[in-house]
Write a structure and sequence with these properties.
The complex is a heterotrimer of chains A (644), B (420) and C (530).
Chain A (H helix, E strand, L loop, with lengths): L6 H20 L3 H18 L1 H18 L7 E2 L18 H19 L4 H14 L3 E11 L2 E12 L8 E8 L13 H14 L8 E7 L4 H10 L7 E3 L8 E9 L4 E8 L10 H13 L5 E3 L20 H4 L2 H21 L16 E10 L5 H16 L12 E5 L2 E4 L4 H21 L11 H18 L2 H23 L1 H5 L1 H22 L10 H23 L1 H17 L6 H16 L5 H14 L3 H21 L3
Parallel strand pairs in A: 4-5, 4-7, 7-10, 8-9
Antiparallel strand pairs in A: 1-12, 2-3, 2-6, 3-5, 8-10, 11-12
Helix pairs in contact in A: 1-2, 3-12, 4-6, 6-11, 8-11, 10-18, 12-17, 12-18, 14-17, 14-21, 17-18, 17-21, 18-21, 19-21
Chain B lengths: L1 H5 L9 H17 L2 H5 L12 H12 L14 H9 L5 H27 L7 H9 L2 H8 L4 H16 L3 H14 L7 H9 L20 H25 L4 H11 L10 H6 L6 H13 L2 H7 L4 H15 L6 H9 L13 H25 L4 H28 L9 E5 L1
Helix pairs in contact in B: 2-6, 2-7, 4-5, 5-12, 6-7, 6-8, 6-9, 8-18, 9-10, 9-11, 10-12, 11-12, 11-17, 16-17, 17-18, 17-20, 19-20
Chain C lengths: L1 H21 L2 E11 L5 E12 L23 H9 L2 E10 L4 H4 L10 E9 L6 H16 L11 E2 L18 E8 L6 H9 L15 H4 L4 E11 L3 E12 L1 H4 L7 E2 H5 L12 E7 L6 E4 L4 E3 L2 E5 L10 E4 L16 E8 L5 E10 L5 E9 L3 E3 L5 E4 L2 E2 L4 E7 L8 E9 L4 E10 L15 E3 L3 E5 L15 E3 L3 E3 L9 H24 L2 E5 L2
Parallel strand pairs in C: 1-10
Antiparallel strand pairs in C: 1-2, 2-8, 3-4, 3-7, 4-6, 5-6, 7-8, 9-14, 10-13, 11-14, 12-13, 15-16, 16-23, 17-22, 17-25, 18-23, 19-20, 19-23, 21-22, 24-27, 25-26
Helix pairs in contact in C: 2-4
The chains are: A alpha/beta (644), B mainly alpha (420), C alpha+beta (530).
Chain lengths: 644, 420, 530
C-alpha cells in the first residue's frame, strides 16, 4: 500500500498507461505489466481509503439508527410444526379460578403474619401435598462479601402418566416480583396461580412430560440456587441442599409474574444471562395463544403502545403534531423504545427476569408479566393462556431448535433477523480495521525518506517491508498493550474488593483518581529514550484499532447489544485519537479518554449491581468492561499521551 | 499476536541462565493453580489421542486389570501406559511438575537448536526464544490442560536438536519414540535424515544442491535402518506391555481411521462427521496420503537447509494432521523464532497475525456457543476451525515465500521480484 | 340362533376340556387388585400355562429334526420360537411409564423397567452360536409382538449374569448356559402389542379374567406393562406366564374426590363367563387396612386382609367393586418411600460434550444392605471410571463398592457393562458420582428426531440377601429395582450441510496445497519496473 502521494503521481500514472499497453505487446516479461496494473489498483484504493472508511462509518451508524424502523423488520412466524399453538380446547374454568383465589387469601394471610421464608415454603409444600403432588423444599445461602442471602425454595413434580419422565416443563413463580427489580413487590398472584395450576394440571392424563412447579424465594437468587442444584453445577459462594425429587431434562420454562390486582396486557420478558435469548418459537407461540386463546393482547416488556393509549405521551410536545402523529414516526418511536430496553438488558448481560437464569442450562424460558391495570383480565385469562401454552410445549418432540436464537424483537409480533441488523456493527469494525491497517502500512514510510516520484515509490512497495520491521517498535507496543490489560485486571480486583462494596461513596472517586494517574506516573518513571524509528504512538494506535475492531466484530456475533455499545463508545473515539506536539493538548485528550474509559466508576450502584451479578450469577459484563473495554480506551488515551 | 511480536529483533538483555529458570518457575506456578482441572475438558486443547482424562482412564483400567485397549476411550501409546503406571506421576502436583518440565525441556531444546544453527555457545536471543516457547498461548494452554501433545512437541524438538548436533543415534531413538506415540510425526523423518548427513547451518541465503557439496547419501540409508531397528524394538516393548496386538488399531489405526469424531481444531472431524458412509474410506485415504505428499517437494526444494524443511513439515502437520490440538500449530509458530533471517521477507505478517488472533478468539467462543449455550450449531465452530486453518496456511505460505525469497536478497530501487 | 351358537360353544369347550384332561397342559389365571396409598389402583393379571414333563431343547440338537409339537393350550407361536432357537428361559417385558417404587412399593412382577426389556438364558453348544440364536430370537419376537425388538442389536446387548439369574432351573446338559440381555427404553407400548399378547391366551379376551383386558381403559392408566416369562422347572416342566400390570387412577377420573373402583370403572368391562379351560381362575383383592369400606359381591374367601373370588363358582356377570365411605384425602407422607431402599439416578450437566452420572441410593432400614448395581450403557455415553466417587451422607468413603466388573464400551458396536456390589450403611444416603463423556456421532447415526436426544436404559439394583453361611447364596428371585431411564442430548451436526462441508474443506485444502506448490515450483525472476 502507499503513502499519501503528491498530485504529480496521478499524472505520471496517466502518462504511464499507454506505455504499459505498448510494452505489454512487445515485452519480454508479461508479469511486468501485471505488476504495474496491480500497483495502479493498489495505489488507487489506498489513496481513496479514507473515503471508504468514512462511508463505512456513516453506513454503520445510520444502519444502527434505522434498526427500529418498521420497514426493516418482519412479522414473526411459528417455525416448529410440532408446536401447533392454540389448537386445543382449554379446560381451566371458574372452579380453578376460585381455587386460585383461596390460595391467594391464604398467602396474603401468610404475608400479613410476615412469616419467614421457611414457613412460607413449608406452607406451600403442604398445599402441594394436599393436592397429591410430590413436593419438597430446598434451603440455600449465598455469601457475597460479608452479606449472606439465604432462603427456601419449594418445588413440586407432577409425574406424567405412561411417560418415562425423562423430559420436563417448568412453571415457576418467584416470591418477589420483577417490578422494581425485586425491591419487595410480592408476586402473590403468581404463586397462587402456580398452586392452582398444580391441582388443575394433575387432573389430566395428557401430559407427555413431567411438570415441575417451582416457587422460588427472593427474586433471582432462589431460582439460581434451585437450577444450580438441579443441574449439579457448583459455585464457591453458594450453599444449597440437594434436590430430593428428580425429574427429567427441562426443555422449556414459563415464569409467571403477576404483581397487580388484575392486568390489561401480558408482557414478554425474554433476555437471559450474558445476552442469551430463548428460541423465538416459544415467544411466538405464547404471543399467538395469549391473543387468540386467552384474548389477552401481548406486549414486549411493559411498554404500552402510545397509539392505542393516547394518554401516553410518545414524543415530546415541541415536535410538530404533523410529525408526531405520523404513523410511521409513531411506530418508529414505539419500536425504538423496545429496542433500547432490549439493548439495556442484553448489553449488560442482565436477565430481564427469573426466566433468564434458565438459559445458561439450554432451557428456553420466558416471563409472562401481567401488566398491572384495573382490568379486565385476571386468574381466568392467565390460567387459560398458561394451560394452552403448556399444551403447546407438551407437543414438542425435540428441543426447540427450528426458529431463531439471534433476533431483535421490535414489537410483540415483529422482529429483525440477524442478517438485517448485524452488518451495522460489522461495518464499523471493518472501518476501524482498515484504519488500523492503513496506519500500520503508512508507518513503513518514515519521514526522512526523500520525496521520490510515484514509480520509484511504487518499487519501494515490496521493498518497504525490508525496513518496515526496523521502524515499527512492535515489542514495545505489545508490552504497553499487555500492561494496559494487566492494569484492567487490577482495576477489576479493586472494584470487586470487599472494601469497594462496603463504602462505594469514598471508594469510587479514589479508585478513579488512582487509576487515572497510574499510567502517567509509569510513563514518567520509564526512561523516555527517543525512538528514532517510527512513532511509538502511531504503532500503538494501529494495533489498538485492529484489536478493537476484532473485539467488536466478535462480540457482535455473541451479544449484538454489547457490540453496539462498543461501537458507540469506541468506534469514533479510537479512530480520532492522535498525538500532538504540545503536551497540554496531549494531556487534555488523555483525560477525555480516561473519563470515557473509567468514568463509569462514578455510577456507583450500577457498578455494584454489575459486580453482584458477576459474583452471584457469573455474568460477564463487569469483567469484560474492566479487562477489555477500559484497556482499549486507555490505549487510545496513551496514543494521545505518548510523544510524537 | 505471536508472529507479529516475533518480527522485531530481541530487546531482551536478560541473561539466559537467569531468565530461563525464571520463566519455567512462572509456568510451574501457573500449572499449580486450579487451571488444569478447568481446562482438561476443553476439546481444543487436547484431542482424544492426547487427552489427559483418557490417559487417566486408561491408567485406571490398566491398574484394575481391565485391558484399556478393549474399549474405545483410551488411544494413548502403550509406552505412555507403562511409563505412567510405573515411574511417571499421572496425578496431582507431580503431574503439574512433569508437564511443566516437558515444556521447559522443549524450550531448552529449541534454544540448543538455535545455537547449533548459529554455531554459537550463547546469544542475546536465547531468552526471547525460550520466552516465546514457554509463553506461547497455543503451547502453554494445552500444557495446562495436561495434553500429552506437549511431550510430542518436546520430543520433536529433542530429535531435531540431536540431529543438528550431529548425534545420529540419539536423534533417531527419540524420533522413533515420537513416531510410536504420534505416528503422523513420521513426516519429519526425511528432513532429520538429511539433517544428519548435512549441517543445521542456515544456507537459505545461498542455496546449492547437495550433490555439488559432495554429501554421501549412502550414510542416510544406514541411518534409516537404524531408525527402523529402534522402531521395531519399541513396538515389541509395547506389545509386551499390553500382551497382545489390539493396541495397534486402537492407537495408530485411530490416526488414519478417525473413529472418534470429537471436535478439535483440525479439518478432519467435521468433514468425516458429515461424510457419506460409502465415501468415508476413500476420503480417509486421500486425507492421510495428502499429508505425505509434502515431504518430497519440500525436502528437495530445501535440501540445502533440512532444518528449515523440518520446520515447514511441522507447519504442515499443525495444519493438516488428523487429531490436532492447539499445540501443533503452536510449535510451528514458536519455531519461527529460530529463523530471524526470514523476517525481512515475510509476505503479509500482519494479516497472518490478525487471522490467528480472530481464530483464537472465535474457536473457544463458538465451541461454547454450540456445546454449552446451544444457541449456535456445529457450523459456527466449523467455520472458526476453517479460519484457523486459513491462518495456519497463511503462516506456512509466509514462511515458504520468505525461505525462497531470501536467496535473491535485497532489491534495488526500480526492480522487483516475482515468480513466473 | 343364539341357542345354536351357545350349543356350538359348549361342544367346542367340552372337546377342548377333554383334550386338556388328556395332555399334560394346565392353564391358571389370576387377577390381583390392590389400592395404593395415593389412591391409585394396581391390578396384576397373570396367565400361567404349564407344559408338564417337557424340557427345553438342547442346542446341540439344533441341526437335527426336532420332535413335532402338539399343543392345545400352550401358545404354539411362542413354542415354535422357543424350540427353533433352543431357549431355556426367556423374559420379555414391554412397559410404559415409570414405576414409582417410593409410592407403590415393589410390583407383583419385578420387570417394570421403562420400555422393552428382553433377556434369555440359552445353552451354549452345537454349531449355532448363542449370539446368532439371540439375533434370531429377538427378530422372531419382534414379529410376534409387533414391537421393534429387532433393534435390540449388539449395540445394546450385554450379558449381566449376576443381576439376572434364572428364575427357573437350567437343565444340566454338560454345556454352560449363557445370558443375553437388552433393553430399549424408547419403545412405546400400545394396542398393537396387546392384540398379539391376547392371541397367546387360550380364551383370548372372550371369557374369564382376560375379558377384562380392555385396551381403551388399560392404555389410559398411569402405568401399564405386559410381560412374557418362559422358564423350566425340573419337576414341573416348561411354564409360560403372561402378565399384564396396570396402575390406574380413580381419583383423577372422579375429579380428585373418590378412590372407589369397580371392574366397570377400571376396565369398563365385567366378567360375563368363565374361561372353561382354566384350572383355577381367581381374583384377589387386597383389603385396605384403614378406613371404612364395603366390597361387593361378597368374596368367596377372606383371609390375611385378602378377599378372593373364584370366578368359576361365583355368579356372573361379576363386577367386583370397592367403596369407601367419605371423600379421599391424601394421607400425610403419602409419598414416603416404602421400599427398603430407594434410588435416584440423574445425568447432570447441561453441556453436550460431557456430564456427570449421579446415583443416590437411600437405605431406609437401620441395617446394612447389599445390592448389586448394574449399569448397561450404550457407547454413546462413555464412563470415566477414574472419577468414580462415593460419598455416604456427604463424606467420601472407599470400600463401599466391591466386586467391580467392567466391560468398556466399543464405539459403534458394544455397550459398556458396569457391575458391582454396593454396601449400604444403615439408614443413610449413598451418593455415587462419575464423570461421563458424550460421543460425537456421524450424521448418519443420528435419529430422525436428533434434537430430542437419546434414551439411556435404566440401571438395575438387585438386593443380596446376606446369608450367614455365604454371602453369595441368594434367594432365586430377588426384588429388582429399575431406576428411571435417562435422556442424554448429543451434539448434532447440521444435517443439511454434507455437500457444503465437503466443498469448503476440500477447497481450503486445495488452496493451501496449490499455493504451497506454486511457491515451490515456480522460479523467481527480477523484473525491472520503470
Amino acid at each position: 500500500m502507499d503513502p499519501p502521494t503528491a498530485p504529480t503521481n496521478f499524472w505520471t500514472q496517466l502518462l504511464l498507461r499507454p506505455i504499459q499497453r505498448f510494452s505489454r505487446n512487445g515485452s519480454t516479461n508479461a508479469s511486468e505489466s501485471r505488476i504495474r496494473r496491480r500497483r495502479a489498483v493498489v495505489s488507487f484504493i489506498t489513496r481513496r481509503l479514507w473515503l471508504l472508511q468514512l462511508t463505512l462509518f456513516c453506513t454503520g451508524y445510520l444502519w444502527l439508527l434505522i434498526i427500529p424502523s418498521p420497514r426493516l423488520g418482519r412479522r414473526t412466524y411459528i417455525d416448529e410444526n410440532a408446536l401447533q399453538p392454540g389448537q386445543v380446547n382449554t379446560y381451566w374454568n371458574w372452579g380453578d379460578v376460585h381455587a386460585a383465589d383461596k390460595n391467594l387469601a391464604q398467602l396474603e394471610a401468610l404475608r400479613d403474619s410476615n412469616a419467614t421464608s421457611k414457613q412460607r415454603a413449608e406452607f406451600i409444600r403442604d398445599q402441594f401435598h394436599k393436592l397429591g403432588v410430590s413436593a419438597s423444599t430446598q434451603n440455600y445461602a449465598f455469601s457475597t462479601g460479608n452479606t449472606i442471602t439465604n432462603g427456601t425454595n419449594v418445588y413440586g413434580i407432577i409425574a406424567s402418566p405412561r411417560a418415562p419422565g425423562t423430559e420436563a416443563m417448568v412453571i415457576s413463580a418467584s416470591w418477589l416480583s420483577r417490578t422494581g427489580d425485586g425491591d419487595g413487590t410480592l408476586n402473590l398472584r403468581g404463586v397462587s396461580t402456580v398452586l392452582a395450576l398444580a391441582g388443575f394440571l394433575k387432573g389430566y392424563s395428557l401430559w407427555a412430560k413431567d411438570i415441575v412447579l417451582v416457587v422460588s424465594d427472593g427474586h433471582l437468587d432462589g431460582m439460581h440456587a434451585w437450577l444450580a442444584a438441579y443441574h449439579g453445577s457448583t459455585q464457591s459462594n453458594l450453599q444449597a441442599d440437594h434436590l430430593d425429587l428428580p425429574s427429567g431434562v427441562i426443555w422449556t420454562a414459563l415464569n409467571i409474574d403477576y404483581p397487580g390486582h388484575s392486568f390489561s396486557h401480558l408482557g414478554i420478558f425474554f433476555e437471559g444471562n450474558n445476552g442469551r435469548l430463548p428460541n423465538q418459537d416459544l415467544l411466538n407461540s405464547f404471543q399467538r395463544i395469549s391473543l387468540y386463546t386467552g384474548g389477552v393482547p401481548v406486549l414486549v416488556y411493559d411498554h404500552l403502545d402510545s397509539r392505542e393509549h393516547p394518554d401516553l405521551s410518545g414524543l415530546p410536545p415541541w415536535i410538530p403534531t404533523a410529525v408526531r402523529k405520523h404513523p410511521e414516526v409513531q411506530s418508529y418511536v414505539y419500536q425504538a423504545k423496545n429496542v433500547v430496553r432490549h439493548f439495556s438488558y442484553q448489553a449488560r448481560g442482565r436477565p430481564s427476569g427469573v426466566h433468564g437464569l434458565f438459559h445458561q442450562f439450554r432451557i428456553d424460558a420466558i416471563t409472562l408479566f401481567a401488566v398491572p391495570a384495573t382490568g379486565p383480565h385476571g386468574f381466568h385469562a392467565i390460567g387459560r393462556v398458561i394451560e394452552s401454552t403448556l399444551r403447546t410445549t407438551n407437543n414438542l418432540l425435540e428441543r426447540l431448535h427450528a426458529s431463531f436464537f439471534f433476533y431483535i424483537l421490535t414489537g410483540a409480533d415483529r422482529f429483525l433477523k440477524i442478517g438485517s441488523y448485524l452488518p451495522s456493527a460489522i461495518l464499523i469494525s471493518i472501518a476501524m480495521m482498515f484504519n488500523g491497517l492503513r496506519i500500520w502500512s503508512d508507518l513503513a514510510w518514515s519521514e526522512d525518506q526523500p520525496e521520490i516520484p510515484e514509480k520509484q515509490k511504487q518499487t519501494q512497495f515490496t521493498n518497504k517491508k525490508t525496513w518496515t520491521r526496523r521502524t515499527r517498535p512492535v515489542i514495545k507496543v505489545l508490552a504497553i498493550m499487555i500492561a494496559t490489560h494487566v492494569y484492567g485486571a487490577f482495576l477489576f480486583a479493586a472494584v470487586t474488593s470487599l472494601w469497594f462494596s462496603d463504602n462505594p461513596k469514598v471508594a469510587s472517586p479514589l479508585v478513579f483518581t488512582i487509576f487515572a494517574f497510574i499510567p502517567l506516573i509509569i510513563l514518567c518513571a520509564l526512561p523516555s529514550e527517543k525512538t528514532s524509528r517510527g512513532s511509538l504512538s502511531a504503532t500503538l494506535k494501529a494495533l489498538n484499532l485492529c484489536l478493537a475492531s476484532t473485539v467488536i466484530s466478535i462480540t457482535a456475533l455473541l451479544n449484538f447489544s454489547l457490540a453496539t455499545l462498543l461501537t458507540i463508545l469506541m468506534g469514533v473515539p479510537l479512530s480520532i485519537s492522535a498525538t500532538s506536539k504540545k503536551f497540554a493538548v496531549r494531556f487534555c485528550m488523555y483525560n477525555v479518554y480516561i473519563v470515557l474509559g473509567i468514568g463509569w466508576l462514578f455510577l456507583q450502584d450500577e457498578t455494584l449491581k454489575a459486580v453482584w451479578h458477576w459474583e452471584i450469577l457469573s455474568i460477564w459484563f463487569a469483567p469484560f468492561v474492566c479487562l477489555v473495554y477500559t484497556p482499549l480506551v486507555l490505549q487510545a488515551g496513551l496514543v494521545c499521551l505518548l510523544p510524537q | 499476536m505471536s508472529s507479529s511480536r516475533i518480527r522485531s529483533p530481541s530487546k531482551f538483555t536478560l541473561e539466559f541462565g537467569l531468565a530461563f529458570p525464571l520463566f519455567a518457575a512462572a509456568r510451574l506456578v501457573l500449572s499449580l493453580t486450579n487451571l488444569p482441572h478447568v481446562l482438561k475438558y476443553d476439546h481444543q486443547l487436547s484431542s482424544p489421542l492426547t487427552s489427559y482424562l483418557n490417559l487417566q482412564e486408561g491408567i485406571y483400567l490398566f491398574k484394575n486389570g481391565v485391558d484399556p485397549y478393549s474399549g474405545g476411550t483410551f488411544r494413548h501409546s502403550p509406552l505412555f501406559l507403562s511409563l505412567f503406571t510405573t515411574i511417571l506421576p499421572a496425578t496431582g502436583v507431580g503431574s503439574s511438575i512433569l508437564w511443566t518440565l516437558g515444556d521447559a525441556s522443549g524450550a531448552w531444546a529449541l534454544v540448543q537448536i538455535w545455537r547449533a544453527r548459529q554455531r554459537i555457545s550463547s546469544s542475546q536471543r536465547d531468552s526471547l526464544i525460550a520466552a516465546l516457547y514457554l509463553f506461547n498461548p497455543y503451547l502453554f494452554l494445552p500444557n495446562l490442560a495436561h495434553s500429552t501433545s506437549s511431550f510430542d512437541n518436546a520430543l520433536m524438538l529433542f530429535s531435531l536438536m540431536f540431529a543438528s548436533q550431529g548425534r545420529a543415534s540419539a536423534s533417531l531413538l527419540v524420533l522413533s519414540f515420537l513416531v510410536q506415540i504420534s505416528p503422523s510425526s513420521i513426516l519429519i523423518l526425511a528432513p532429520v535424515l538429511l539433517l544428519l548427513i548435512t549441517s543445521p547451518v542456515s544456507r537459505l541465503a545461498s542455496p546449492q544442491p547437495l550433490t555439488s557439496s559432495g554429501v554421501q547419501f549412502r550414510k542416510s540409508g544406514l541411518l534409516l535402518v537404524e531408525f527402523i531397528a529402534y522402531f521395531t524394538v519399541f513396538t515389541l516393548i509395547s506389545a509386551l506391555v499390553v500382551g497382545n496386538w489390539i493396541w495397534i488399531p486402537q492407537t495408530w489405526g485411530a490416526t488414519t481411521n478417525l473413529p472418534d469424531l470429537t471436535p478439535n481444531t483440525g479439518l478432519w472431524w467435521y468433514f468425516f462427521t458429515e461424510m457419506f458412509d460409502h465415501f468415508r474410506p476413500m476420503f480417509l485415504m486421500v486425507f492421510s496420503i495428502h499429508l505425505f505428499m509434502y515431504i518430497a517437494p519440500i525436502c528437495i526444494k530445501f535440501q540445502y537447509d533440512p532444518l528449515f524443511a523440518a520446520f515447514l513439515l511441522i507447519g504442515i502437520l499443525g495444519t493438516f494432521k488428523s487429531y490436532p490440538s492447539l499445540s501443533e500449530p503452536g510449535l510451528f509458530l514458536s519455531m519461527i523464532t529460530i529463523f530471524p533471517e526470514l523476517y525481512p521477507y515475510f509476505r503479509h505478517p500482519i494479516i497472518t497475525a490478525l487471522l490467528h488472533f480472530h481464530a483464537s478468539l472465535l474457536m473457544p467462543l463458538f465451541n461454547s456457543l454450540w456445546l454449552n449455550q446451544g444457541t449456535g450449531n456445529a457450523n459456527f465452530y466449523y467455520a472458526s476451525t476453517l479460519v484457523f486453518a486459513c491462518s495456519n496456511g497463511a503462516a506456512l505460505i509466509d514462511c515458504i515465500w520468505a525461505g525462497l525469497r531470501i536467496a535473491i536478497g535485497e532489491e534495488e530501487t526500480g526492480y522487483t521480484v516475482v515468480q513466473e | 340362533m343364539l341357542a345354536s351358537w351357545k350349543a356350538r360353544l359348549f361342544v367346542g369347550l367340552s372337546l377342548s376340556l377333554s383334550v386338556v384332561k388328556a395332555s399334560g397342559e394346565q392353564f391358571d389365571e389370576q387377577l390381583t387388585i390392590q389400592s395404593l396409598r395415593d389412591g391409585k389402583v394396581a391390578s396384576t393379571f397373570s396367565f400361567k400355562t404349564l407344559l408338564k414333563g417337557v424340557s427345553p431343547r438342547d442346542p446341540r440338537t439344533l441341526g437335527a429334526e426336532d420332535a413335532s409339537q402338539h399343543y392345545n393350550v400352550f401358545p404354539l407361536a411362542l413354542g415354535q420360537i422357543l424350540r427353533e432357537y433352543a431357549v431355556t428361559e426367556l423374559h420379555l417385558s414391554l412397559n410404559a411409564g415409570r414405576w414409582n417404587y417410593d409410592r407403590w412399593g415393589y410390583p407383583k412382577e419385578p420387570a417394570v423397567g421403562t420400555g422393552a426389556e428382553l433377556w434369555a438364558w440359552m445353552g451354549d453348544g452345537g454349531q449355532v452360536s448363542v449370539d446368532h440364536r439371540w439375533m434370531g430370537l429377538r427378530n422372531a419376537l419382534a414379529g410376534l409382538f409387533c414391537a421393534s425388538l429387532g433393534s435390540l442389536d449388539e449395540q445394546r446387548t450385554t450379558s449381566p449374569d449376576r443381576s439376572f439369574e434364572p428364575e427357573g432351573m437350567l437343565p444340566d446338559w454338560g454345556v454352560p448356559h449363557r445370558i443375553r440381555h437388552a433393553t430399549l427404553p424408547s419403545e412405546n407400548v400400545c394396542t398393537e402389542n396387546l392384540t398379539p399378547f391376547l392371541k397367546l391366551l387360550p380364551c383370548k379376551s372372550l371369557s374369564g379374567i382376560a375379558s377384562l383386558l380392555n385396551p381403551h381403559r388399560l392404555f389410559d392408566a398411569d402405568w401399564h406393562g405386559m410381560g412374557i416369562h418362559v422358564l423350566w422347572r425340573e419337576d414341573e416342566g416348561v411354564e409360560v406366564r403372561l402378565t399384564f400390570q396396570s396402575v390406574s387412577d380413580p381419583v383423577r377420573s372422579s375429579l380428585g374426590r373418590k378412590r372407589d373402583w369397580s371392574f366397570r370403572s377400571l376396565f369398563d368391562r365385567t366378567i360375563d363367563r368363565q374361561c372353561p379351560i382354566a384350572k383355577t381362575s381367581e381374583i384377589t383383592v387386597a383389603l385396605p387396612s384403614e378406613g371404612s369400606y364395603s366390597i361387593n359381591p361378597e368374596p368367596s374367601v377372606v383371609n390375611a386382609g385378602k378377599a378372593s373370588f373364584d370366578v368359576a363358582t361365583i355368579d356372573k356377570p361379576l363386577d367386583v367393586a370397592l367403596q369407601w365411605s367419605g371423600d379421599f384425602q391424601y394421607v400425610s407422607g403419602f409419598d414416603k418411600p416404602i421400599t427398603p431402599f430407594s434410588v435416584q439416578r440423574t445425568l447432570r450437566g447441561s453441556s453436550q460434550a460431557h456430564g456427570q452420572l449421579s446415583v443416590i441410593v437411600k437405605n431406609h432400614q437401620n441395617s446394612t444392605q447389599q445390592v448389586v448395581y448394574l449399569e448397561t450403557m450404550p457407547w454413546l455415553v462413555q464412563f470415566y471410571l477414574h472419577t468414580l466417587e462415593i460419598r455416604v451422607d456427604g463424606v467420601r468413603r472407599d470400600g463401599i463398592f466391591s466386586d467391580i466388573a467392567y466391560i468398556p464400551a466399543v464405539p459403534h458396536s458394544r455397550p459398556a457393562t458396569f457391575q458391582g456390589i454396593l454396601t449400604l450403611p444403615p439408614s443413610s444416603a449413598l451418593h455415587l458420582t462419575m464423570d461421563v463423556t458424550k460421543s460425537f456421532l456421524r450424521y448418519t447415526e443420528h435419529r430422525p428426531d436428533a434434537q430430542r436426544g437419546w434414551d439411556l436404559p435404566p440401571a438395575v439394583l438387585t438386593v443380596l440377601e446376606l446369608d450367614s453361611n455365604t454371602s453369595t447364596a441368594r434367594h432365586p428371585v430377588n426384588p429388582r429395582i429399575y431406576t428411571s431411564t435417562l435422556l442424554v442430548d448429543m451434539a448434532t451436526p447440521d444435517f443439511s450441510m454434507p455437500y457444503n462441508v465437503i466443498i469448503f474443506t476440500c477447497s481450503l485444502i486445495a488452496f493451501i496445497f496449490g499455493s504451497v506448490f506454486n511457491l515451490l515450483t515456480r522460479k523467481f525472476v527480477v523484473v525491472r519496473i520503470d
